[in-house]
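Here is the promised in-class demo. Please do not try to memorize the tokens; focus on the logic of going from shape to residues.
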């Protein structure tokens, strides 16, 4: 690997992911960019995940750790602690990079303008086989965006190692630890910059915790707003009230799709 080049650390956290992990690994190790560190944090899987990781990675140098954890954000923090890259990206088991040149294109964007946190777009992969591009424009990198009850998927983000190592995830969260982290970054005046790139395919299925436990997600999102942006809590409450009204929820969802969802 060339000296002086920006180093990207990709972290995959998984547990009992024997059906998903192979495709994720292949999408990482096939990248054309050559200064990539790959870390896999396994939560002490009891299926054949470890065997598949060993077979799929082959000769590719992978940092692999398998032990019990206290949840996804605890596992992600373990990856952060091991990372040596300039920027860190989290690609969950089951998710895949959009193609084998995406990290090279991300690096080209990073080299254009300085920022602490870069983010692009992702492809929602629905259980019925359909897919849509979920866009994150420049407005999504502003504080007010989080007051709507939304946040950027961490699979869309490349964050500086300095930001993540200095301020790791709060592992007391089960669903919204990434949202909490982003809000803390805003309070610390970190610079967010959006990239006109589609980063990865995001598996949006019944195993997604934020979908399977909407009440927990809402409670934790409320906690984030109250703790970090208390002056904007009223705005958040207005959006939440709209979501609880069927007619208003349909209108809100329509606006959301118009602004952020488009066909591939």
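The designed amino acids, position by position:
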């Amino acid at each position: 690997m060339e000296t002086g080049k920006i180093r990207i650390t990709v972290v995959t956290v998984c547990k009992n992911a024997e059906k998903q992990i192979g495709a994720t690994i292949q999408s990482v190790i096939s990248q054309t960019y050559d200064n990539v560190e790959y870390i896999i944090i396994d939560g002490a899987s009891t299926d054949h995940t470890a065997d598949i990781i060993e077979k799929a990675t082959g000769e590719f140098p992978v940092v692999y750790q398998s032990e019990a954890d206290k949840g996804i954000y605890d596992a992600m923090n373990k990856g952060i602690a091991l990372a040596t890259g300039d920027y860190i990206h989290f690609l969950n088991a089951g998710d895949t990079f959009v193609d084998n040149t995406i990290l090279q294109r991300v690096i080209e964007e990073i080299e254009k303008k300085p920022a602490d946190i870069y983010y692009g777009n992702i492809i929602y992969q629905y259980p019925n086989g359909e897919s849509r591009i979920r866009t994150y424009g420049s407005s999504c990198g502003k504080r007010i965006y989080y007051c709507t009850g939304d946040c950027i998927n961490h699979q869309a983000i490349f964050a500086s190692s300095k930001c993540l190592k200095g301020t790791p995830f709060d592992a007391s969260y089960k669903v919204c630890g990434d949202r909490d982290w982003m809000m803390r970054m805003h309070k610390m005046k970190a610079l967010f910059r959006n990239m006109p790139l589609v980063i990865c395919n995001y598996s949006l299925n019944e195993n997604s915790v934020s979908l399977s436990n909407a009440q927990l997600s809402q409670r934790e999102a409320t906690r984030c707003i109250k703790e970090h942006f208390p002056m904007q809590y009223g705005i958040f409450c207005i959006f939440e009230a709209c979501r609880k009204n069927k007619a208003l929820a349909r209108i809100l969802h329509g606006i959301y799709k118009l602004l952020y969802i488009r066909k591939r």
